[in-house]
Design brief:
Layout (H helix, E strand, L loop, with lengths): L6 H20 L3 H5 L2 E8 L6 E2 H14 E16 L2 E14 L6 E13 L5 E11 L6
Length: about 140
Amino acid sequence: MADGMDYQLETRRIESVIDAEVEAMADDEIDRYLTLLADDALFLPPDLPSIGGEELHAWLREFLEEWRIEWLGFRHDETELCDNLAFHRFSYSWRLEPKRGGQLQVSHGKGLHILRRSDDGDWKIARETWNARPTPNTI
């Protein structure tokens, strides 16, 4: 690890950013969620084009306005650091309830975050991608 960084401490710091992301989604707190993203954050959602910038912020706001999220499980599968970048692989299960009524949806899947350490030392989510699968994870 470069510049004498404590690998375990940095791994915990990175995973705490992801935990904050999960909590912000469950608590329906979009403004808190957006503080976790790098200025140039880019999401690569399944079956959609890449989304960044103000379009990403609007997309996330719309998602949280439309759905109530209940996490059924979330697991940090792997975290790797390379200087000012970190790669975080995860597994999830969640239930989405339409806020305006409708059918519940359950999704299980896996994904990847790429985080970048900012000049002030904080880790921010720079890239995120995920995909669902029809069967539950073993979380």
